[in-house]
């Protein structure tokens, strides 16, 4: 079915693209500019195409040169629409003005999550669950997270008395991170279910496949591209249907047992500590003790959204930290190993507490620098949702509906914000500033900012630190006869993932 859809979409794209180029050639004179005092539109040579090729081929050069020539705020013409880029002086104005700029709406234009998962109320519900349950009770979850990370490492890396080559570390990290995340989302009863774990590992990638087709039809109009890529969704085909079925099959008997136990035991019943129970505590989702009245689809979609938001981001971060540690082994490995040994000794080899993890200050700074260093060039698209237009503090104006993206490079390369040599990796940059990885600051954009900053950042950072801590204590790690490229490669504004085999060996 998926292959057939791709073929049909491909035929539609070819025919529409040819017609679209003809139409667009006549429409290109209409620059879609307004009478507002808009940011300068960067010069481009080719009509219709605009900056698209440069944006995809060498985004770094395009952004740096545009910033130098046009200033901190400017606009590009990419895939048929004007996109405004803001630098370090305006970035936090965007992040603070949630009544005028919406990341949710900007992201929706790239991936229509509302059509995939439905239930608009789920967005706020999941934020509340992450904020109140995951972060609010993180100290109580540390033991479970740690136990499951250790089990996952043993399962997917194991004893390495002889050197063991992990050919695809990125996939292995997804397998490892899926286990502790599944435990705190769906609970002890079903997180080890083989099908459920497979859904945690693959749901995000199943979803993204649908949107790999480049937005060529946006050269005619962005609306047309949106209509084409959502045809399967609007006709009932959904890339996560099989995952929703797995989730429902796993959680239904668990929910029924919990409701029956609660009804039978009354006040003596102890509610499990997981996100699944958070949904059941909502009277709109579970209005009484009757399993027949449960909104199972709502819960399944909520879990799906949590998986999408947590697995890929955390596993990618952990993979990048591990690669950075191996790449800079001579400089940092031994010192971080000594910190890990000291903390392990202080807790007598027992389970880490949240205070123990907080004492990993050198590792924390290393993690934050790794996340900073592998940021995209441009990211976090926000859609202007003001009634007619918005006026920036610098006097420039953008019309309602305009996508405004943040220039990460402008923030990351700024010496005033980052300290000396901001383009070089320095692991203890943030330690010297007393700035932990979870702290939101003007010089660190990985987790966004303002009221809508990533609510799960504390969980992600703690998971990464626990994973790396255990790796440092247990293994020696090196590359598999291949060097990690010093120069990062990009596809458009996004860094291309490193894919070098790693060799693990017991200490």
Automatic annotation (TrEMBL):
Cofactor(s) demanded: heme
Keywords: Heme, Iron, Membrane, Metal-binding, Monooxygenase, Oxidoreductase, Transmembrane, Transmembrane helix
Transmembrane portions of the chain: 12-30
InterPro entries: Cyt_P450 (IPR001128), Cyt_P450_CS (IPR017972), Cyt_P450_E_grp-IV (IPR002403), Cyt_P450_sf (IPR036396)
The keyword Oxidoreductase appears for this protein: yes
Pfam families linked to this entry: p450
Positions bound to heme: 454
GO MF assignments: heme binding; iron ion binding; monooxygenase activity; oxidoreductase activity, acting on paired donors, with incorporation or reduction of molecular oxygen
CDD domains, alphabetized: CYP503A1-like
Family statement: Belongs to the cytochrome P450 family.
Protein name: Cytochrome P450
């Amino acid at each position: 079915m998926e292959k057939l859809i791709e073929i049909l979409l491909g035929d539609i794209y070819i025919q529409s693209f040819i017609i679209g180029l003809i139409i667009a050639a006549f429409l290109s004179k209409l620059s879609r500019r307004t009478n507002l005092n808009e940011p300068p539109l960067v010069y481009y040579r080719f009509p219709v195409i605009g900056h698209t090729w440069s944006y995809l081929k060498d985004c770094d050069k395009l952004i740096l040169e545009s910033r130098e020539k046009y200033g901190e705020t400017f606009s590009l013409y990419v895939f048929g629409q004007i996109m405004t880029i803001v630098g370090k002086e305006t970035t936090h104005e965007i992040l603070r003005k949630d009544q005028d700029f919406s990341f949710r709406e900007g992201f929706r234009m790239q991936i229509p999550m509302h059509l995939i998962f439905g239930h608009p109320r789920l967005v706020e519900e999941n934020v509340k669950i992450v904020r109140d349950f995951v972060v609010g009770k993180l100290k109580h979850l540390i033991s479970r997270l740690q136990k499951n990370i250790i089990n996952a490492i043993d399962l997917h890396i194991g004893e390495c008395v002889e050197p063991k080559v992990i050919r695809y570390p990125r996939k292995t990290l997804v397998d490892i991170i899926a286990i502790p995340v599944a435990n705190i989302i769906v609970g002890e009863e079903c997180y080890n279910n083989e099908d459920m774990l497979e859904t945690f590992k693959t749901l995000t990638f199943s979803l993204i496949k649908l949107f790999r087709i480049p937005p060529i039809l946006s050269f005619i109009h962005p609306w047309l591209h949106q209509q084409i890529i959502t045809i399967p969704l609007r006709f009932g085909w959904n890339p996560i249907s099989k995952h929703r079925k797995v989730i429902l099959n796993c959680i239904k008997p668990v929910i029924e047992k919990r409701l029956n136990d609660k009804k039978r035991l009354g006040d003596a019943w102890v509610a499990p500590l997981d996100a699944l129970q958070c949904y059941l505590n909502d009277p709109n989702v579970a209005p009484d003790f009757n399993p027949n009245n449960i909104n199972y689809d709502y819960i399944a979609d909520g879990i799906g959204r949590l998986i999408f938001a947590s697995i890929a981001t955390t596993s990618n971060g952990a993979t990048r930290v591990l690669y950075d540690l191996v790449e800079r082994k001579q400089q940092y490995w031994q010192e971080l190993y000594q910190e890990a040994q000291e903390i392990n000794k202080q807790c007598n080899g027992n389970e880490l507490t949240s205070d123990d993890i907080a004492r990993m200050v050198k590792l924390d700074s290393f993690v934050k620098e790794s996340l900073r260093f592998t940021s995209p060039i441009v990211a976090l698209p926000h859609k202007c949702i003001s009634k007619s237009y918005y006026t920036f503090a610098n006097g420039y104006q953008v019309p309602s509906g305009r996508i405004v993206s943040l220039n990460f490079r402008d923030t990351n390369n700024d010496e005033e914000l980052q300290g000396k040599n901001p383009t070089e990796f320095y692991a203890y940059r943030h330690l010297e500033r007393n700035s932990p990885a979870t702290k939101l600051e003007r010089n660190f954009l990985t987790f966004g900012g303002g009221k809508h900053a990533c609510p799960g950042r504390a969980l992600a950072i703690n998971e990464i630190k626990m994973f790396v801590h255990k790796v440092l204590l247990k293994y020696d790690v090196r590359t598999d006869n291949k060097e990690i490229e010093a120069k990062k490669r990009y596809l458009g504004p996004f860094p291309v993932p490193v894919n070098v085999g790693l060799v693990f060996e017991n200490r």
